[in-house]
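Changelog note: in this version the structure field was regenerated for every chain. One regenerated record is shown below for reference.
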Amino acid sequence: MNSSTTSPLGVDFPQQLLDAFNEATKQACQILWEAIKQAMMEHWLLLLAGLAFLLVIAVIKYCLTGLWGMLASVVYNYLYFGTLFVVISIFGPEIFASDYCKIFLTILYMVCFTLVGIFVNTTGIRKGWNG
């Protein structure tokens, strides 16, 4: 008769489960990135036209009303998501499955927010348009 109190799943079963979950997350990120990349390659002209349209609308709104919020928001989103695109292109989508992803995204948020603030102050956009 076996009097051992060990688990039938093994001592390192929780670690194996976590490793399997991390591997599945990496594969899911890879599949999602490939789908996004494929869609961007197929519709790159439409994507660029849409981004340019948003920028033009933001500039027109700033010029007509003097309200700079939309323009700063568009510039921030271009900077943030453009940086993410470059990082993903270099390191691969597996970076989002790492333990440090939230720290990286928080730092990127603060850096982009600061850079847009510097841009808005330096160019005088924050002062508004007085006609």
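Spot check on this record: Residues 13-127 form one domain. The chain has four helices and no strands.
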